[in-house]
Amino acid sequence: MSNIHSSAVIEKGATIGENVNIGPFVSISSQTIIGNNTTIDAHAIIAGKTTIGEGNHIFSHAVIGSIPQDLKFDGEDVELIIGDNNKIREFTLLNPGTKGGGSITKIGSNNLLMGYVHLGHDVIIGNNCILANGATLAGHVELGNHVVIGGLTPVHQFVHIGDYAMIGGASALAQDVPPYCLAEGNRAVLRGLNLTGLRRGIPRDEINALKTAYRELFESGQALQEIAEKIKSENSSIHVKNLVEFITQSKRGIPYTRK
């Protein structure tokens, strides 16, 4: 049985699951779907066509699903989809997609979005990511799994960030960051592998293979795309293949200083 405060405003048509807790002065739109065991704290706003999975905790004053901050938006049918077991902290702002970007903003499961995080339209986020306070993602940004973004870091539109990558706090990222890598600075550049993150989920032999590949790619002085194709054809490590495939498919380029 759900626990809904008497002052909450829930429009007709909203779907509320089992064991959902909704606090005082929460506003929920008619197109909202909320999964089981989710908690929505006081003064949060759930707007538009928003689907929220199970076991999420949306903290007070979060604004979820309000129209995209895009001057081209003209009332199209757009959507925000949120997975399971996410923690979405105070004063976060999550926008749905736009017609030009596929119409969907999508957040995976087990993510932590700290206070004042903003996710722009058409953003795609994987699972087990952490975005620290004040991180801001512009439209069309894509994050893999296990990505960490430090506080007060803006990410330029259309940037892709690979699995297990980390972006240091107070950076400004304008290019793609390959999986397993660490970047920081304004403008952010690669500083090495995210070894702390890798040790939490990647076997030691795979980490060693990534170290070798990183040196060849970014410290050998050779043309990046050429060495990436060479490594891709010669290396059997699945994580190294993920790394070089990301590089060969990058559209915004990789931010590194050639030796």
Automatic annotation (TrEMBL):
Chief location category: cytoplasm
Key word Lipid biosynthesis present: yes
An annotated GO BP: lipid A biosynthetic process
Domain UDP N-acetylglucosamine O-acyltransferase C-terminal: start-end pairs: 176-254
UniProt GO MF annotations: acyl-[acyl-carrier-protein]-UDP-N-acetylglucosamine O-acyltransferase activity
InterPro entries documented for this protein: Acetyltransf_C, Acetyltransf_C_sf, Hexapep, Hexapep_transf_CS, Lipid_A_LpxA, Trimer_LpxA-like_sf
Catalytic reaction equation(s): a (3R)-hydroxyacyl-[ACP] + UDP-N-acetyl-alpha-D-glucosamine = a UDP-3-O-[(3R)-3-hydroxyacyl]-N-acetyl-alpha-D-glucosamine + holo-[ACP]
Subcellular location: Cytoplasm
Keywords, sorted A to Z: Acyltransferase, Cytoplasm, Lipid A biosynthesis, Lipid biosynthesis, Lipid metabolism, Repeat, Transferase
Gene3D superfamilies referenced in this protein's UniProt entry, alphabetically: Hexapeptide repeat proteins (2.160.10.10), Udp N-acetylglucosamine O-acyltransferase, C-terminal domain (1.20.1180.10)
PANTHER family documented for this protein: ACYL-[ACYL-CARRIER-PROTEIN]--UDP-N-ACETYLGLUCOSAMINE O-ACYLTRANSFERASE, ACYL-[ACYL-CARRIER-PROTEIN]--UDP-N-ACETYLGLUCOSAMINE O-ACYLTRANSFERASE, MITOCHONDRIAL-RELATED
SUBUNIT field: Homotrimer.
Family note: Belongs to the transferase hexapeptide repeat family. LpxA subfamily.
The protein's name in its UniProt record: Acyl-[acyl-carrier-protein]--UDP-N-acetylglucosamine O-acyltransferase
Organism in which the protein naturally occurs: uncultured Sulfurovum sp
Source species taxonomy: Bacteria, Pseudomonadati, Campylobacterota, Epsilonproteobacteria, Campylobacterales
